[in-house]
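Hi D.,

Good news: the full-assembly prediction came through. Inputs first.
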Amino acid sequence: MAAPPEAVVHAWTRLERAHRAALAAVEDRLKAAGLPPLAWYDVLLELERAGEQGLRPFELQKAMLFAQYNLSRLIDRMSAKGYVARTASAEDGRGQLLTITRAGRALRRRIWPVYGAAIEAAVGAHLSPAEARTLGDLLEKLHPPRS
Amino acid sequence: MAAPPEAVVHAWTRLERAHRAALAAVEDRLKAAGLPPLAWYDVLLELERAGEQGLRPFELQKAMLFAQYNLSRLIDRMSAKGYVARTASAEDGRGQLLTITRAGRALRRRIWPVYGAAIEAAVGAHLSPAEARTLGDLLEKLHPPRS
DNA sequence: ACCATCTTGATGCAAGTGCATTTATCTATA
DNA sequence: TATAGATAAATGCACTTGCATCAAGATGGT
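Then the structure:
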């Protein structure tokens, strides 16, 4: 049933490998710098972009493609450290609003130099600018923003 | 320090998303079919390719980019189920040789149709043949086979 | 208003992962 | 041939993830 063409299998296996290698390299650098895991950065970035009004957990969940229970506990940890604030949602009695704190913004700024350098080393260093652009565009087709 | 160009950051974030989405979709299908996780397939495939003489755990580790302790325990589980055989290495008193069993080969054959269809759905369906080829080649540059 | 159904978010428990360390064996150099 | 150092693999313990389920609040039809 639907045995995929060889080029597709090749793309998939390379996607796995490239991602695994790059992610491990990035996480290693963060750890070496005494910084929290990547997921923390993603949360901080999304919340910072959301600004004053914050984000509902389920929105963050969709933005990050994170499992509900994982996000719930990630937010536990991050708010315990004071990087994220949970407040009850005004419109929805079930829900909450997550906002980034001052400490959260500071943490994100502290992570970025290390993270950015790691991205450059793991991705940028291997590709020409045109290749990087093409790669990004092709990957975007695999999971289009608004689908 | 070394803030990467925008195209590089874009490629990285898309790599993360595309991989996360595709992987989740593939794992979901395996689970729905009552099959073990993807990593099992990778082990079975590598061992089947290695043939009679098998593979040393550390070789498998490099092939799969899997952490040593994780592989050690993954092999525990797989050999407990009879899909992989562990035997002491003849040349190296510390080491072992892993080989796939008949049941292991059967499992791999049983997984492939589901896995192949999932790859097609997650990757093939979104790309032309030429795009798939280009994507695979670009990803290969991120983690060249023999580096 | 009522009830069935859906959505949001949390949580108990089992399974997997990461970290540090350990044991055993191999290798190289003096 | 000793012996210091490297490599192969396992393991105890803490943390994270996955799974299933739950409780509380929203929603829509009657």
